[in-house]
């Protein structure tokens, strides 16, 4: 059998199975739309049907394009990495990032000036808040993780991802989940679980997409031409596998009917709370930490041109972090109906987490040994290094806040909001920005970014915004906690709740202004990356030495 025949046969099986599954999905979605009495389900059923129909046509077109391309490849052709789906992931990351930051800053201004809710259901705080968290965590962060994991696993394994359609199914399936979740929030569809608001049918769809994602990643590792599995891939794999387990267990529900948007959680009472925060904390631990540590372990050495400081420390970092993180969730439930031993267990493991977290931070920072001078001239590397510093700060603050005595003051206050955003903006967003700045020239085959000066502007504007945000929330949160626990001489509360809210208002304005700075920085990045993809270079930047295009394997 010739190479051409083999390629076409394999593509035929791959493509038609996927197209057949989508065809079944179209009929099921249309049947649901016809039989449901829930108008909100009707909207989502038609969105699913439309997306599946577009997917079928896309598969048919890609099938012929892929067959023609592979038939022309010589038998001894070098590895042809699948870069197109990564390009799409980069574009989606930038789009959803700006959208999520805009939603977040809108919420910040609503808290400072509540009249901005406009008494419109689609625009009120209760519906925009989950839209913001899902947009920045799952839409922006998730697309960054999918794009970088696809890039890193191919490069470090010297192997193309399996299947021509499976990676695209992961990408477009994930975008469909985001659209279903976002439109659901705006229409009031939610199961009211933190970081897990989408209803049962969206959860099932995400599970299908995520399983395919896992198989694509594992398939690339299986096909690898490198005998060693680079440490970044271990972090990515832990992120993918653990998130699958967390998502399935936390979203075990009983739908009211197969044509209704409403469902009821399988767990109740304190069990529901424990499962929720086992999920919630480990979504932070494995989605927002382990996955982005995979980014750190590839892009920091690559950008610095230096090997990882200690590969042995990176392995210790991985296994200790993976083992300890999964037990720390109960620290979200101090002074609740959760048994005291479980609260203490969560606190203990949270304190222990400080050690592996800082081991990873030290490993990342010390990777720059012999290359510290590059921080003066490379704002992308500066952004990556500052993200590691924020990672260290957040992973120290988190264990401190998990101590019961500290938690009694900090919990339910704005201090928690400041802590979350020091990690989300300083660590997750900055390391994502650094990865995007690295990948766009590599993917579009450009010698350098459009403007390093714009990267520097982005860095300083966003850093200033983060500092305004987190410091205002630290002060606000501690003031809030102290006012809540203040008693007069007769043993009554010294301040009413509305007085504490009034005291927060100046800090809410500072936060909103800080968020606006961060949003402006992201818009600068979007413009810079767009010009880079076009192949433009600012005249003064042409005098700089061009950035090197990466070799297939990370510096190890």
TrEMBL record:
E.C. designation(s): 7.1.1.9
Residue ranges occupied by any Cytochrome oxidase subunit I profile domain in the UniProt entry: 85-556
Q: Transmembrane stretches, by residue range?
A: 12-31, 43-64, 85-113, 133-153, 165-188, 200-222, 234-258, 278-299, 311-328, 348-368, 380-403, 423-445, 457-487, 507-530
Q: State its cofactor.
A: Cu(2+); heme b
What Pfam family does this protein match (any one)? COX1
EC category name = translocase
Q: Does the keyword Hydrolase apply?
A: no
**Pathway it belongs to?**
Energy metabolism; oxidative phosphorylation
Q: How does it sit in the membrane?
A: Multi-pass membrane protein
Enumerate the catalysed reactions. Answer: 4 Fe(II)-[cytochrome c] + O2 + 8 H(+)(in) = 4 Fe(III)-[cytochrome c] + 2 H2O + 4 H(+)(out)
Superkingdom, according to UniProt? Bacteria
SUPFAM superfamilies (UniProt xref): Cytochrome c oxidase subunit I-like (SSF81442)
- Please provide the record's keywords in A-Z order: Cell membrane, Copper, Electron transport, Heme, Iron, Membrane, Metal-binding, Respiratory chain, Translocase, Transmembrane, Transmembrane helix, Transport
Which cellular compartments is it found in? Cell membrane
Its main subcellular localisation, reduced to a broad class, is: membrane
Q: What protein family is recorded?
A: Belongs to the heme-copper respiratory oxidase family.
Q: What's this protein's name? A: cytochrome-c oxidase
Give the organism, scientific name: Kiloniella antarctica
């Amino acid at each position: 059998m010739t190479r051409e025949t083999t390629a076409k046969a394999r593509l035929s099986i791959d493509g038609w199975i996927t197209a057949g599954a989508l065809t079944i999905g179209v009929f099921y979605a249309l049947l649901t739309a016809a039989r449901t009495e829930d108008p909100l389900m009707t909207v989502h059923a038609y969105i699913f049907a439309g997306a599946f129909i577009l997917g079928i046509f896309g598969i048919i077109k890609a099938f012929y394009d892929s067959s023609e391309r592979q038939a022309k490849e010589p038998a001894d052709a070098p590895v042809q990495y699948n870069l197109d789906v990564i390009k799409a992931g980069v574009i989606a990351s930038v789009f959803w990032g700006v959208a999520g930051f805009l939603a977040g800053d809108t919420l910040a201004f609503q808290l400072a000036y509540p009249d901005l809710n406009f008494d419109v259901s689609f625009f009120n705080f209760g519906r925009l808040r989950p839209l913001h968290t899902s947009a920045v965590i799952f839409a922006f962060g998730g697309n960054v993780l999918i794009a970088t994991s696809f890039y890193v696993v191919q490069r470090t394994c010297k192997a193309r991802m399996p299947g021509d359609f499976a990676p695209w199914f992961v990408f477009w399936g994930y975008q469909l989940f985001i659209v279903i979740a976002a439109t659901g929030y705006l229409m009031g569809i939610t199961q009211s679980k933190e970081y897990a608001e989408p209803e049962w049918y969206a959860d099932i769809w995400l599970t299908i997409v995520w399983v395919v994602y896992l198989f694509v990643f594992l398939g690339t590792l299986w096909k690898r031409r490198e005998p060693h599995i680079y440490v970044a891939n271990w972090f990515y794999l832990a992120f993918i596998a653990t998130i699958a387990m967390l998502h399935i267990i936390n979203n075990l529900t009983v739908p009211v009917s197969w044509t209704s948007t409403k469902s009821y959680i399988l767990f109740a009472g304190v069990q529901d709370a424990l499962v929720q925060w086992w999920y919630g904390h480990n979504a932070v631990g494995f989605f927002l930490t382990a996955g982005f540590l995979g980014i750190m372990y590839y892009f920091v050495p690559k950008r610095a041109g230096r090997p990882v400081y200690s590969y042995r420390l990176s392995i210790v970092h991985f296994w200790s972090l993976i083992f300890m993180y999964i037990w720390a969730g109960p620290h979200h439930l101090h002074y609740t109906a959760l048994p005291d031993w479980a609260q203490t267990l969560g606190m203990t493991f949270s304190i222990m987490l400080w050690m592996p977290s800082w081991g990873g931070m030290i490993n990342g920072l010390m990777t720059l040994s012999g290359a510290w001078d590059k921080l003066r001239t490379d704002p992308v590397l500066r952004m990556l290094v500052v993200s590691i510093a924020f990672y260290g700060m957040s992973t120290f603050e988190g264990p401190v806040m998990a101590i019961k005595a500290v938690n009694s003051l900090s919990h339910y206050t704005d201090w928690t909001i400041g802590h979350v955003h020091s990690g989300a903006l300083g660590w997750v967003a900055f390391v994502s920005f650094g990865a995007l700045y690295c990948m766009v020239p590599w993917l579009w085959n450009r010698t350098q970014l459009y403007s390093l000066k714009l990267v520097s502007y982005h860095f300083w504007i966003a850093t200033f915004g983060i500092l305004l945000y987190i410091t205002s929330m630290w002060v606000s949160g501690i003031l809030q906690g102290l006012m809540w626990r203040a008693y007069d001489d007769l043993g009554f509360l010294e301040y009413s709740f509305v007085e504490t809210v009034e005291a927060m208002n100046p800090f809410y304005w500072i936060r909103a202004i800080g968020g606006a700075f961060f949003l402006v920085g992201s818009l600068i990045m979007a413009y810079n990356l767009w010009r880079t993809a076009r192949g433009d270079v600012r005249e003064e930047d042409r005098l700089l030495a061009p950035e090197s295009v990466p070799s297939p394997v990370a510096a190890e």
